[in-house]
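Subject: Interface between my chains keeps coming out wrong

I've been trying for a while to get a sensible model of this assembly. When I model each chain on its own everything looks fine, but I need the whole thing in one frame so I can look at the contacts. Pasting all components below, labels as-is. Any help appreciated, I'm running out of ideas.
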Amino acid sequence: GDSVTQMEGPVTLSEEAFLTINCTYTATGYPSLFWYVQYPGEGLQLLLKATKADDKGSNKGFEATYRKETTSFHLEKGSVQVSDSAVYFCALSDAQGAQKLVFGQGTRLTINP
Amino acid sequence: ETGVTQSPTHLIKTRGQQVTLRCSSQSGHNTVSWYQQALGQGPQFIFQYYREEENGRGNFPPRFSGLQFPNYSSELNVNALELDDSALYLCASSLGGLSYEQYFGPGTRLTVT
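Reply #2:
Try treating it as a single job with all components included. I did that and got this:
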């Protein structure tokens, strides 16, 4: 079945550092790809998405490019802030049936001032 | 525009009991999905309802059941609670059809003792 693998955390960075969180996926079809963010005590918020190969999703300074050849969707940000501290989830949704989201295990990011 | 709401926020139950969790979808959304998020893990798809019909189910036993009402709100029922059912239960609504974006509520934290 479909699956998502994220780099293991936790990840700790200093403010203004460059961020990369790796995500690779396995899917039989042509999924849409997502990054969700979960702040402490809250539900999931959609951060960005890409629906086809070579699409780049971007939001709030975060970017991720849908790479079909490497089955990857790595999250990047050029200069992180303390407010970016959260858990980040990579997810996919296939085009068939219930279009359920399949999530990775999450990466906890802590940004120190 | 009202977002996805869930009730209750927290719940403590005893093993063997039954529980009902509730979700109100975002205005205009006709599809509701339920996810279970164990501590430190990514959410796992339980099932989805589209226009009051179950539209897909994940790898959960039949004691997990649901309903969707004409106003598209939804319930998740879990019978014969087990300790491993302790988790954050997330509800997500979407437009259905080819819309992949799911909007999550804050979740219900269920503790089974």
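Reply #3:
Confirming on my end. Chain A has no helices and twelve strands.
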